Amino acid sequence: MANHKSAKKRVRQTEVRTLRNRFYKTRIKNIVKNVLTAVEGKEKEEALKSMKIANKYIHHCVSRGILKKATAGRKVSSLQLKVNAL
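Structure (tokenized):
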């Protein structure tokens, strides 16, 4: 366990950041799942609407430092290919 004041603060900060990152990553998974569900159901309008939301949120997470730029690009690219195939 931490003994120094600064180390104790770091432990507290890590706990808060872990919870925040978990929230963002869970939300990303749910948004991606919405797009994939619409694609599997062959619902083009719903897929396009979900893709717009996913693209915006994934890039928002890049600006927050939750995802790396390349990871976000890869996710968006693979989703867009599936939506365009409809």
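The domain at 5-84 is CATH 1.20.58.110 (Methane Monooxygenase Hydroxylase; Chain G, domain 1). The mean pLDDT is 95.
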